[in-house]
Structure formats: C-alpha cells, structure tokens
Amino acid sequence: MTQSDIWRLSATELSQRTIAGDLTAEAAVTASLTRMAAVNPDLNAVVEDLSSDALDRAQQLDKARAGGAPCGPLHGVPVTIKINVDQAGHATSNGVSALKDLIAPDDAPVVKNLQDAGAVVIGRTNTPEFSFRADTDNPLHGRTHNPWGRHISPGGSSGGAGAAVMAGIGALAHGNDIGGSLRFPAAANGAVTVKPGLGRVPAWNPSQSAERGILAQSMSVQGLITRSARDLHLSMPSLIAPDPRDPFHVPMPWRGDIPDGPIRVAFSKETYGYDLHPEVDAALDDARAALLDAGYHVEEVTLPDVFDAGRTGYRALMGEVYALMKGDVDAAGSQTVRDIFEVYFQEFPPFAGVELLQMMAKRTQYARDWSLFMQRYPLVLTPFLPQPFFRPDRDTEGAAGVHEVLGCAVYSYAMNFLGLPAASVPSRLAELPSGPQPINVQIAAPRWREDMAVDACIAIEDRIGRMCDPLWQRMSDTSG
C-alpha cells in the first residue's frame, strides 16, 4: 500500500499497523489530513480543521512508543468529534451562531476516552442548529453534503460525522443520538453504527450551565460511526470506559456471553401504514439472507408495538423540549429551525402536565414488553426508514416534509425511548432515478448487548461488502 492509500484503511487495519510499528502515527494522521484537504472543501463535513494539533499529537505518540510506552488500542487512529460535544479549548457551538464563542474548559468523557486509547482528533464535524434535525445545515457553518451526491441529505444530526468517515476523512467519527442522530447519518451515507443503550457510554459537557431534561438524559447517547462493522468492536470498548462525571454510567464489559445454539432473530417488514419502498424491501431480504447464511435463525414475527412506543416517546420528548428548550430555539435559532420546530410540535403534539408524567412512566411498560420479547428473540431485524433516504432540506417543506423525515421513523426513536441498543448497517446499494443510494437496515439488541448487534452487522457486511468501496470508486470517477 502506498502512502497515498493509507486513508483507505479501516480503524482495525490502521491500529494493527501502528501498534506493530509497521506504520507511524504521524503517517496515519498525515494521510487522513491529506484526504481531508482534498475532499472536505466540497463536502463541508469538518468545520474546524485541527491539522496542526493532530500532527503534534501523532509525533508525541510516536516518540512515546519509541521510548517503550505501551500503545493504546486506537494508537494513531484519526478520529473526528462532533461540534456539540466539549473538546478543551474549542467551541461547543452546536451549530448555533450565538454559541460560537462557547469555549469548552475541559474534554467531555468521550473525547477523553478516545484520546486515552491513543486516537488522534483531526477535526470537528458539522451538526444542524441545536443538533435537532435529521439533516445538517446551519447559519454558522453552512450545509454538509453527502459524498454519494447532492440528491441525498447527509442525515443528521451527526451528518458531518457520517459524511466525513465515509469520504475517508478519519477512520472513526464521533456522534450522538437522541432520536436517530447516529443512525440517520449512517443510513444516509452507507456507514455502520450502533446506538448504545441507556447508561452505556459516559456523557457530560463541562461547558453546560444546567442539566438536561430527564428524557434528554435517558434518550440521548454517545457513539461512533464507522466504515466497517469490525471497527465498532475495536473502538467501543474504549468509548465505554467509566467516567465519574456521569453518575448514571454503568461499567459493564463490552462483550457478553454467547448464547447457546443459533441466535434467534425476529424479522419484521411492518411499517405501520407507511409504504415500504421496493428497495427497502429488497435490502431487508438481503440482510435476512446474509444472517441465515451466517447461521442465525431468522423468523418473521409480530413485534411489540413499535409505533405506539415510538410515537409516545417522541411526543413525551417534545413535551420536555417545549418546556425546556423552545425559549432557546426562539431566541437563538434561525427562522428555518424555528419553523421546523413548529412543525415538529404539530407532527408530535407535546404531552404536558400530568399526561407527560404518565407517558414518561409508561416507558417502563414498553421496555418490559420488549425485555420479555427479547428473551426469545435477542435480535430484531427491521427497516430503519420505510423509504430510501430523503433529499436535502426535505424537513423545511412543511408538514409533509417533516412527516417523511421523522414521522415515519418510529423504528428509530422507539429504541431511544426504550433505552435499547440499535445498530444500522447497509445491506443494499440502490440505483434510483435520482442517483445511487445506500439502504441500511436496523438491528436491535437487548440491554448491554451492543456486541450482539455488531456481530450481526459483521455477518451482513462479510456477505454483502462495505459500502465505502463503491462510493470511493464513484468519487474517483467523478473527480476525473
């Protein structure tokens, strides 16, 4: 492999070479920075370039290794951090112009954990205003584009992260997810992710002046977006390292016991009244076939009511958002995001008062139903969205736009309300009239068993292939 191709390596391949001494951290980081300089001007995925700091850190890692210091599992692996999470000395703007000078006094736990493992932060990635859209654009940094083409939104709110990692800017991309913000970008860009379950990854921003609402705390999680499913097994054990600043983090090991016999997978194409697009239907069949070939027992069954759990959960979240966040959106948000929030409140009428408390309490009933169901079916394979990914700014097009973007995404935010892990993996590349588009499916797992969902993603990826390979060919062909 030539120096110019190092950026193509997965995080797993890269760490193996840097730890063995076959590749320096400086060479690994330099390759990613060169790639970023080449493709980011068109994508606008990374909105704060940290090249100088990254090279300094890579050189320090190389000196430490040469001096006999042990290497972390992510030694020299280039990563990006989303701009809504604290990184000491940098603005946690959250895509909001009024917060452009909110400089973090210290690193958030995820940033510390990644760097403690040897990772090198090369840049900070874009997010929509308040990190509360499934598309990525804001007045402060502008629009992020999807490397597959401008006919597809890059997703959100970790849209910069998804576009960056799939374009080859860094081997790992940090993101977070309160209703789908890791999985939307993974689906949009053909990447892989696992939304961790409640309490799995320590979270806190030292710059914050008040605690978040209780639903935001219990539905929002930190995670990583990758090009290869195996990179999640490499990187997530570092991300989940304990941090005392999150008092509700649960220090469980990454790997759990392997069940005896074939693992049962509940399979459903139910879309609760929304039309299932033929390409999504085919992607589900492809994923099922891959799991069957890998030895899983896949059975089409009726699931506990995802629609009721998802809609109830998001209406409850909107109730909390309306009470605690609407004032900030009105005061500091653009007209675009204020208009979108008004339609959110129409699509998901906020619960309030006693009813909000009752619906928050009902969360336990839904979670219990799923816990019992997963005694028999520890994995659940479903659509992520019933349709191929939407076009940019679709959520600015009134009620119909928000309904297509979020209204139909019940498989997404239901998992946040339930607190369950949910992975997203591409299983098909669709050639649509608008252009090529990856199609991802979702795999949910029991609490604390993100590793089982990732294993299933690996089984699918091994049989279908990584989506970055055809993407890079197309990017090369386009650039001439």
Describe this structure in words.
This protein has 480 residues and is of the alpha/beta class. It has a single domain (3-479), classed as Amidase signature (AS) domain (Amidase signature (AS) enzymes). Helices cover 43% and strands 14% of the residues. The protein is built from 17 helices and eleven strands. It has an eleven-stranded mixed β-sheet, sandwiched between helices. Helix 9 links the parallel strand 7 (264-267) and strand 8. The radius of gyration is 21 Å and the shape is globular. 56% of the residues are buried. The mean pLDDT is 97. Keywords: Hydrolase. It comes from Phaeobacter piscinae. Pfam families: Amidase.
Quote the average pLDDT.
Answer: 97
Q: What percent strand?
A: 5-15%
Q: N-to-C SSE series?
A: HHEHEHEHEHEHEHEHEHHHHEHHEEHH
Beta-strand segment tally = 11
CATH superfamily: Amidase signature (AS) domain
**Quaternary structure classification:** single chain
CATH architecture: Alpha-Beta Complex
CATH topology: Amidase signature (AS) enzymes
- What is the number of helical segments per DSSP (H or I, 4+ residues)? 17
Widest beta sheet: strand line-up: 1-3-2-4-6-5-10-11-9-7-8
Question: Taking Cα atoms only, what radius of gyration do you get, to the nearest Å?
Answer: 21 Å
Keywords:
single chain; 480 residues; alpha/beta; Amidase signature (AS) enzymes; 11-stranded mixed β-sheet; 17 helices; globular; hydrolase
Could you give the topology of this structure?
Elements: H1 11-20, H2 25-43, E1 46-49, H3 51-66, E2 78-82, H4 109-116, E3 120-125, H5 159-167, E4 172-177, H6 183-189, E5 192-195, H7 214-219, E6 221-226, H8 230-239, E7 264-267, H9 278-293, E8 297-300, H10 306-324, H11 326-332, H12 335-347, H13 353-373, E9 379-383, H14 398-407, H15 410-418, E10 422-432, E11 435-444, H16 450-464, H17 468-479
Parallel strand pairs: 2-3, 2-4, 7-8, 7-9
Antiparallel strand pairs: 1-3, 4-6, 5-6, 5-10, 9-11, 10-11
